[in-house]
């Protein structure tokens, strides 16, 4: 989560390319690289005179040029995802080795932890994708503190950290399906005559 491998792309020095009317292989001299995550990143600017590497951090430098509320929301839901994924893993291990009966007949908690993790991971992907694509985050980073040259996103793709969030979402979704296939009934499908346990064990299991 804290790495810079969320987005990887290239940025074009539009001003320099227009000055010399660069096309074809000449355009490569004006294409730099950029990669960043939720907290920091690095960029390599090229405007025909060689690359200029530069490292940056979002806090506090870039908070004025990026959608700060959206970015903080992504970090918040990432934190919630980490916490509840850890909680879900701990209780699943306890459930598997400590109380086999609850593994087959466990109530609300087994669905609760996975649902929270699914919701948070889905929100992280949606919010971060909208920040990158709709708010043109890469261009804002590339043009930060630039008064002479104008940079434009040339290519852009999500990197490994983003896909780990997708894998987490799919894993918790698969957990819910496996719990259902194991014979555990959904809470709203339980018979009315069944006694409902609303104690602490509901949240544990």
From TrEMBL:
GO terms for biological process: equilibrioception; sensory perception of sound. InterPro entries: Clarin. It is found in: Membrane. One of its GO terms (cellular component) is membrane. It is a multi-pass membrane protein. The chain crosses the membrane at residues 65-91, 111-130, 162-182. It comes from the Eukaryota. Keywords: Membrane, Transmembrane, Transmembrane helix. Its main location: membrane. Belongs to the clarin family. This is Clarin 1. It comes from Albula goreensis.
């Amino acid at each position: 989560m804290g790495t810079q491998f969320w987005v990887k792309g290239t940025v074009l020095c539009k001003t320099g390319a227009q000055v010399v009317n660069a096309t074809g292989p000449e355009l490569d001299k004006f294409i730099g690289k950029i990669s960043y995550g939720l907290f920091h990143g690095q960029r390599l600017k090229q405007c025909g005179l060689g690359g200029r590497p530069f490292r940056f951090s979002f806090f506090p430098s870039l908070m004025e040029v990026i959608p700060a509320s959206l970015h903080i929301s992504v970090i918040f839901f990432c934190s919630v995802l980490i916490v509840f994924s850890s909680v879900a893993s701990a209780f699943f291990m306890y459930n598997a080795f400590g109380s086999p009966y609850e593994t087959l007949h466990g109530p609300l908690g087994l669905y609760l932890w996975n649902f929270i993790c699914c919701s948070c991971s889905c929100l992280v992907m949606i919010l971060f994708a909208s920040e990158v694509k709709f708010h043109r985050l890469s261009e804002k980073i590339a043009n930060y503190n630039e008064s002479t040259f104008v940079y434009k996103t040339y290519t852009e793709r999500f990197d490994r950290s983003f896909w780990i969030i997708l894998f987490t979402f799919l894993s918790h979704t698969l957990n819910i399906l496996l719990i259902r296939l194991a014979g555990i009934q959904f809470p709203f499908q339980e018979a009315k005559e069944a006694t409902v346990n609303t104690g602490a064990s509901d949240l544990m299991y």
